[in-house]
């Protein structure tokens, strides 16, 4: 930067920000610039050129400021010079070298400095009064490499994964069939850092009181909570608009997105108009990008059979009819096939050191928290120990992984009764991507003690006590229920009577998209006397939230079970039965309500995800700046000819933006290969994503990790 001034006397004429050197030491070299990007609590170096050498009593005085109405009282402004007081609490500067007209200096910000865009200016102390001269702007981020920073993370492998990795994997599907989906976080792509800072500036917290808001940006608790509100659009024209009705007109289906970059660019270029549409993994993917970009170690976590407890009674109450079909108008709670949120790593100065570490943050707009759709940060340790009273949103997160799943059979006379179903259903296979590899790590043990253990039930009871504290008058708290009835808290801990039969659905063939489904309901008599069982079967296409879209099967059977006999009822669902109503989630819910001789009842459920096929091969070594051929094998899953298929390709460091390739007409069940070139721009492990898009069947996605060598 060249600087000049009409004033006489000494002045800074040029500054070298040493972006390459500082970028390497601060782990910020991947940000594209143009400003210098550094991390707090760590020294960075500048070279100043003066119009003449400094004399003995002259020294350079620096001012850094961020946000409007910057002030030293708010810690949004600092004025400092060489040889000032102790390091740590204030900004400091050390002169490293002086040669003629150039001075090399090293500046260190405090490890709890406000993050964001700073303006730096200087003046030289001398007898002549001088005004400050602007040197330029730089960006200061959180620093997981600095032991004094609240976001400090001790493992270099984890910092590489949770701060610097610009791609990842999000786990979706159902508990018994977990699928990996690639996601391009792209936190180092053009303009993304600028957009992440503007997300903070668009927050109502900033719009209402900008100076106070900026002064709180030293605190990862404050920043992450603000981001969790701003990633959804519910209160604040935030980034992504949610849609769970299965209709995506006027926008993009949540399943079409394969990364955060296109979403963030669209929001920014569209003047902060919310981007249509997202569901939980989209909100989590975008929030992971923003928090990693700002320097907070963050990962994406999937919870299978995730409770959405609307009334904070730690039970998901599902009302069904005699065919096991969900009664939508009575059922306010829900159990989603999976739900995706984030965890970020930082200290909890507000709660104490035992709650440091991973914190749950959830940008999906499910319930309001202090009047705003946001969730967290909630300490994972607090969730495991049942300390649901601690900030923020502990009860909601605890319920997501621990609530009891209670089924109520609703009779036509508007009475109801509890029906036996598995209480262990909720909060299964809590998953995240492994550090340094594509494998899935099960982290359920971080959230709760082993299912059925004494400790697990103790924690559950502790959470119930904290949630339903006895009122001052001594009366027990009542919870309002659907249909206007009240439920005593003691009722929550009493299981339904276990029937004398067992039942489960079994797939006879893998469930493949475009094919008939073949399965059986297996019933077993647990007694030594014969029993008659009436079975009401139903099936519906569903969204991943288990919300039914359309009924595709309803039939009844009567079965005689001899003493301790097992029997199978075969079930076939033809492709023609489900093809019109299958959603992009590719999911079907089967239910069997079984009525046994002595008035016992059993509800058996199975969630099916239809399978598809795509493979990706890289033909040859991948090197920066050298084109390499990629071959994608696709299959038409249908028993009919399809046209108008397109292959969408994306990958940070592998190609600019998205590539769109037309796929030739595919005959019924035909396999075809599509080839294209990519020219990598960055070395290291890079994720390439492909998405086969067709108007005739839901998207078929795949990804591959390509190890790119540096240019020779």
From TrEMBL:
Reactions catalysed according to its record: L-glutaminyl-[protein] + L-lysyl-[protein] = [protein]-L-lysyl-N(6)-5-L-glutamyl-[protein] + NH4(+)
Free-text remark on how the cofactor is bound: Binds 1 Ca(2+) ion per subunit.
Domain Transglutaminase-like residue range list: 272-365
Entry-linked Gene3D superfamilies: Immunoglobulins, Transglutaminase-like
SMART domains: TGc (SM00460)
MF annotations from Gene Ontology: metal ion binding; protein-glutamine gamma-glutamyltransferase activity
Known EC number: 2.3.2.13
Active-site positions on this chain: 280, 339, 362
Binding locations of Ca(2+): 402, 404, 451, 456
Keyword Signal in record: no
Cofactor: Ca(2+)
Cross-referenced PROSITE patterns: TRANSGLUTAMINASES
Gene Ontology cellular component annotations, sorted alphabetically: cytoplasm
Keywords: Acyltransferase, Calcium, Metal-binding, Transferase
Class of enzymatic activity (EC top level): transferase
Similarity comment: Belongs to the transglutaminase superfamily. Transglutaminase family.
Name of the protein in its database record: protein-glutamine gamma-glutamyltransferase
Lineage: Eukaryota, Metazoa, Chordata, Craniata, Vertebrata
